[in-house]
Design goal:
- With about 90 residues, this protein is of the alpha+beta class.
- It has one helix spanning about 35-50, and strands at about 10, 15, 25, 55-60, 70-80.
C-alpha cells in the first residue's frame, strides 16, 4: 500500500522508506526518533488520504552486527481493515 501511494524511496528529515521493502524505514544518517515518528505519521496520512485505509504501526528492534551504537527498526505497517501485512 505504501508503494502504491508512491512513497517507496521517499526521504524526509533523514528517514527514508526503503527502496527495496516499503515496510522498512531507513536512517540515511541524521534521522532521530522524533523525525522517524513524524515521517511515519506522514506515511499514514498519505495512505489514508489516497486509499481511505488507516495503517497501524508495529515496531520491532533488530540487532545490528555492525556495532552497538547503531540500531535498526523494522516498522511493520498493518492494514486496519483486515490485519494483514501491507508493504
Amino acid at each position: 500500500m505504501i508503494e502504491q501511494c508512491g512513497l517507496k524511496g521517499k526521504t524526509v528529515g533523514g528517514a527514508m522508506v526503503s527502496p527495496k521493502h516499503a515496510g522498512f524505514i531507513v536512517n540515511t544518517g541524521d534521522a532521530n526518533m522524533s523525525k522517524c515518528f513524524g515521517f511515519i505519521s506522514l506515511i499514514q496520512t498519505t495512505v489514508k488520504e489516497q486509499t481511505g485505509i488507516m495503517l497501524n504501526v508495529k515496531f520491532a528492534q533488530l540487532a545490528d552486527s555492525i556495532g552497538s551504537d547503531r540500531i535498526r527498526l523494522r516498522i511493520q505497517i498493518l492494514n486496519r481493515k483486515d490485519g494483514k501485512m501491507e508493504f
